[in-house]
């Protein structure tokens, strides 16, 4: 985007953190500035962490002092971690929310006073349409929340500043070949991508291919890294994550964001068996919710809901003892007396659970 604007003679402010080359991702704000000026524009490189209000303010002031104002803001900075809720450390959650959502909001807020003075001002966020299909949440809820935060800035600010500032979002239809994509997709991803060359109207979520089609472009092979090769659809559009993984693997790429396979360990098998013997009568006679805090080889927290609401009984034990209890190999009473089982809550309900375990052992778990 910067290079295209530079070829049109624009003044470009490059606000980013990378002042020293990264071992895996090439380029710095200074090398980007050199490319901008080589393309015919003027550049100002500013070291900015967009989580830092002071650094943003200083960069905005430098831009106004050097170029006389600001007409366009492009919010591109993003952090990504395609991991599930239990696998995502809060440090990464804070990073994604701090850069994607808060950073976009804060930078827009600080540039807005200058945009309001400009002629035909714009904000463009590199963020997806707000697709609420659960498939885009289940494997990486934190990332989707953070990315959709950028999109919600578009939705809100477009209406708030309608008639004054155009605020839109742009999202690629297919994967785009960048150094970050090479890291995420691994070897073989490049040929499934397009190049960056593809990249009073407000409040829209634009997909690059749709914009070009409206302008009469029909030949999209000119943007392909390898013309004629099948392309990989981008996140948050119509294809589910599993479909993207399948398409990548069919053409030799190794996705780093592959959704976790369905669980099939001993604890899952035990719960599958439990489901097989639960019926309406069991729920009526039990009326309890059990929480199992498992340690050992298959540690985790599991719930057995034979009512609804918060857990009435919390049972902490080794995961191997959990499977033995429901297989009829270890009585809860004996496990409790020997210290293998720790119970908090309604002891009467704990005894009722023993009846279910007896029933399951008869069913030969």
UniProtKB/TrEMBL annotation:
Gene Ontology terms for molecular function: oxidoreductase activity
Cellular component, GO annotation: mitochondrion; peroxisome
Annotated Pfam families: adh_short (PF00106), SCP2 (PF02036)
Keyword Transferase: no
Keywords: Mitochondrion, NADP, Oxidoreductase, Peroxisome
Main location: mitochondrion
Ranges where the SCP2 domain occurs: 280-357
Subcellular location: Mitochondrion; Peroxisome
Superkingdom of this protein's organism: Eukaryota
Keyword Protease listed: no
Family of this protein: Belongs to the short-chain dehydrogenases/reductases (SDR) family.
The protein's name: Hydroxysteroid dehydrogenase-like protein 2
Organism ancestry: Eukaryota, Metazoa, Chordata, Craniata, Vertebrata
């Amino acid at each position: 985007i910067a290079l295209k604007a530079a070829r049109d003679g624009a003044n470009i402010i490059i606000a980013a953190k990378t002042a020293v080359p990264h071992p895996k991702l090439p380029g710095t704000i200074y090398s980007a500035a050199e490319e901008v000026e080589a393309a015919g524009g003027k550049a100002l490189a500013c070291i900015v962490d967009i989580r830092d209000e002071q650094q943003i303010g200083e960069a905005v002031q430098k831009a106004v002092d050097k170029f006389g104002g600001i007409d366009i803001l492009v919010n591109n900075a993003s952090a990504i971690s395609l991991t599930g809720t239990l696998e995502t450390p809060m440090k990464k959650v804070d990073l994604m929310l701090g850069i994607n959502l808060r950073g976009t909001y804060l930078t827009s807020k600080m540039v807005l006073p200058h945009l309001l003075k400009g002629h035909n001002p714009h904000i463009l966020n590199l963020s997806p349409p707000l697709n609420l299909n659960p498939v885009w949440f289940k494997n990486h809820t934190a990332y989707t929340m953070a990315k959709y935060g950028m999109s919600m800035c578009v939705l809100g600010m477009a209406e708030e500043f309608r008639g004054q500032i155009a605020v839109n979002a742009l999202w690629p239809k297919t994967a785009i070949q960048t150094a970050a994509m090479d890291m995420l997709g691994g070897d073989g991803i490049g040929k499934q991508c397009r190049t960056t060359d593809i990249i009073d109207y407000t409040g829209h979520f634009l997909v690059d291919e749709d914009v070009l089609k409206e302008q009469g472009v029909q030949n999209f092979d000119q943007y392909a890294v390898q013309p004629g090769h099948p392309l990989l659809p981008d996140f948050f559009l119509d294809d589910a994550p599993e479909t993207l993984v399948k398409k990548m693997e069919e053409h030799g790429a190794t996705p780093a964001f592959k959704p976790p396979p369905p669980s099939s360990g001993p604890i899952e098998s035990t719960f599958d068996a439990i489901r097989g013997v639960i019926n309406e009568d069991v729920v009526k006679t039990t009326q309890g919710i059990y929480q199992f805090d498992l340690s050992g080889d298959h540690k985790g927290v599991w719930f057995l809901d034979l009512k609804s609401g918060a857990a009435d009984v919390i049972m902490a034990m080794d995961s191997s003892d959990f499977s033995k209890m429901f297989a009829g190999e270890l009585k809860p009473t004996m496990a409790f007396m020997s210290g293998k089982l720790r119970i908090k809550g309604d002891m009467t309900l704990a005894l009722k659970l023993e009846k279910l375990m007896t029933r399951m052992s008869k069913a030969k778990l």
